[in-house]
Amino acid sequence: MLNVSHYKHPDEFPIDVQQLFAIGEQESIESSVYWYRNLINTVYPKDDGINTYVLRKNGKPVAALPVRSIKTPFGQKVEALSNYYTALYSPLLTNELAVSDMTILISAVKNAHVSTGIMTFSPMDPSAGSYRTLFLALQANGLVAFKFFRFGNWYLQVQNDWSTYLKNREGTIRSTIKRMHKKFLTDGGVLELIQDATQLERGIDAYQRVYASSWKKPEPYPEFIPGLIRICVNRGWLRLGIAWLNGQPIAAQLWIVANGKANIYKLAYDEKYKSYASGTLLTAMLMEHAFEQDKVFEVDYLIGDDAYKKSWMSDRRERWGIIAYNPKAVAGMFGLCKEAIWRTLKPLLARLRTASAASKVRT
Q1: Which residues pair with 4 in a beta bridge?
Q2: What is the DSSP letter of 217?
Q3: Nearest-angstrom CA–CA distance, 302 and 87
Q4: What pairs with residue 300 in β-bridges?
Q5: In this structure, are residues 277 and 176 in contact, taking their beta carbons and an 8 Å threshold?
Q6: Pair 56, 13: CB distance under 8 Å
Q7: Residue 17 CB: number of other CB atoms within 10 A?
Q8: Residue 355: pLDDT over 70
Q9: Which of 187, 191, 216 has the alpha carbon at shortest distance from 206?
Q10: How far is it, in rounded angstroms, from Cα 197 to Cα 222?
């Protein structure tokens, strides 16, 4: 017997749903109750479109789908409960779930928002079974689904100790660490690693001061990162690195270590002190700790193909999304037409760009 229920906030989850999210947490902290509670409280505190749909099979939760419904001029749009803070989204699925079961869950979501024209879920792991299951379930509901690229993801498979790993890095990195660490210390610099609650608020303040002095745009949701840091310290996940120069924080990095993985979540530095390469020094300190103390098997740079990441990481994978159109809704049909045109023109435009580049080389 299958039935679907929904909850507006993780604080409403009954014990069995909490247990399902606890299983998801073992794969990714972004599938945890703690992550979603912080995301809703700090980013979507007054959003009535938040729901987590839960499918029970014979009374046992076998799937959960956190989503956000958005009203548009042409109807509803349903999307993954995520935003640019999210490096990996996934439905929470158990091994007992069949694609036909997931089809029932998607149908319930679709029926709850009768004017829904578009559903979109990202960023996801395209190699995961949950990605395929979700895609097939959307199709089975009469939606026309497409897969799309989101971003590259550089990561390191840890196979050696720290000293061996460092020897295999580019000479410029090793030289920078050696030279600048000496200069940094001589000029009054200190590298600090915060992991527990005793220095927590001081660490949050230092992080925020560095971020405000960096090149980065102000956070539109300023309570999200402090909330995440507090969660991490309570869960034992926190690795907050701060570079101090004569008592002033000049660089900060937030790493999250859980389930044998170290995620490099946030980094910033004060550009006035760029010459100290404090970001490189912090990365080296945190990387060594992840290797030697945390004994991680993976270090993950999460979002983006920034050139510097290749110098530290060993492999690249991709995160993709799914967009599905309801051809029976105005917004869905309009979006489907746009999608079809773009997918037809995209390879043609790529060939034209290639031909143009080749022509310039010849001339």
Answers
A1: 55
A2: P
A3: 6
A4: 155, 263
A5: yes
A6: no
A7: 20
A8: no
A9: 191
A10: 20
All CATH 3.40.630.30 domain ranges of the chain, comma separated, are 2-150+318-360, 159-296
Fold of 159-296: Aminopeptidase (3.40.630)
Find the mean pLDDT for residues 138-153.
97
Q: Please classify residue 278 by burial: count the beta carbons closer than 10 Å to its beta carbon, then call 0-12 exposed, 13-18 middle and 19+ buried.
A: buried
116 token code pair:
């829904």
pLDDT in tens, 196-234: 999 999 999 999 999 999 988 889 999 999 999 999 999
Rounded Cα gap, residues 229 and 244, in angstroms? 19
Asked whether 149 and 343 are in contact (CB, 8 A), the reply is no
**Residue corresponding to tokens 């210390």:** 185
Q: In terms of pTM, does the model score above 0.85?
A: yes
pLDDT at position 260 is 98
At residue 125, φ and ψ (nearest 5 deg) are -85, 110
Q: How far apart are CA 141 and CA 135, in angstroms?
A: 10
d(CA 257, CA 235): 10
Give the class (CATH, top level) of 2-150+318-360: alpha beta
Q: Which of 150, 230, 159, 154 is nearest to 197 (CA)?
A: 230
Eight-state DSSP code of residue 304: B
Specify whether the CB–CB gap between 93 and 63 falls below 8 A.
yes
Structure token digits, residue 163: 């000293």
Tokens (6 digits) for 357: 């580049």
